[in-house]
Amino acid sequence: MTKGTALIIGAGSGLSASLARQLHARGNAIVLAARNTDKLAVLAEETQARTVALDGSDPGDVDALFASIEGRLDVAVYNPSARVRGPVADLDPEEVRRAIEITAFGSFLMGRAAAKVMQAQPAQEGKRGTILFTGASAGVKGFPNSAPFAMGKFAQRGLAQSMARELHPKGIHVAWVNIDGGISNTAWPERTDDGTDKMLDPDAIAGAYIQLIDQHRSAWSNEIALRPWVETF
């Protein structure tokens, strides 16, 4: 099957970097989108990626990004999210609005645009593409002093469920991934695993994304949870 473009919105140094490398290794052309593309220079060179400056919650930015993709779109991944912490009675409404726009509304914009493109392209081996949303345990259970993050992730999870039921019969695989634990990132000393695997390895997470992308349509997952072996349920 001919490999097309893989788009990652919210690209950075952690999971998205690992995913970009693995998608590049399997033959996909890579497009990396982020607010600050300067930080992507090394990764872009390594993966031969095109970088695009983007506000994922801006409809015009998202539509322009998808219009710029040439050829087949195989994969679209939405990573951005925003947190506003504090007691619910003390939260600033505008900060909460912005957090939900980034986490939930941005997911909708990406899902909408990807669905338009993928529905219009021919199927390969019965499949027109894969749309993945990077979720969190906050989309399953809301934590104290973190209401805006839970609101955004619950909305994102509901979006993914609805899209999966609508688009799976059209040959477009949609899945929401519950990242249920902290992700190790060597760029941040406080987020680096100590060798015990108590944190999620970004390469291992990316491997799970590749497995989702390669799933046979007779057994598509629309939701998975990834957690370290020491994580309590």
Distance linking N and C termini:
39 Å
- Specify the oligomeric state: single chain
Counting DSSP E segments of at least 2 residues, the number of strands comes to 7
Biggest sheet layout: 7 strands, parallel
Low-confidence stretches: none
Relative strand content = 15-25%
Specify Rg, calculated over alpha carbons: 17 Å
Provide the helix percentage. 25-40%
DSSP helical segment count? 6
State the shape: globular
Describe the structure.
- The protein contains six helices and seven strands.
- The protein has helices at 15-25, 41-47, 59-67, 93-119, 147-167, 202-214; strands at residues 5-9, 29-34, 50-53, 73-78, 129-136, 172-179, 223-226.
- Strand 6 (172-179), helix 6 and strand 7 (223-226) form a beta-alpha-beta unit.
- Helix 4 packs parallel to helix 5 (147-167).
- It is globular and about 50 Å long.
Please outline the helices and strands.
Blueprint: E1 5-9, H1 15-25, E2 29-34, H2 41-47, E3 50-53, H3 59-67, E4 73-78, H4 93-119, E5 129-136, H5 147-167, E6 172-179, H6 202-214, E7 223-226
Parallel strand pairs: 1-2, 1-4, 2-3, 4-5, 5-6, 6-7
Helix pairs in contact: 1-6, 3-4, 4-5
Characteristic key phrases:
alpha/beta, globular, 6 helices, 233 residues, seven-stranded parallel β-sheet
Task: Sum this structure up briefly.
With 233 residues, the chain is of the alpha/beta class. The chain has helices spanning 15-25, 41-47, 59-67, 93-119, 147-167, 202-214; strands spanning 5-9, 29-34, 50-53, 73-78, 129-136, 172-179, 223-226. Helix 6 (202-214) links the parallel strand 6 and strand 7 (223-226).
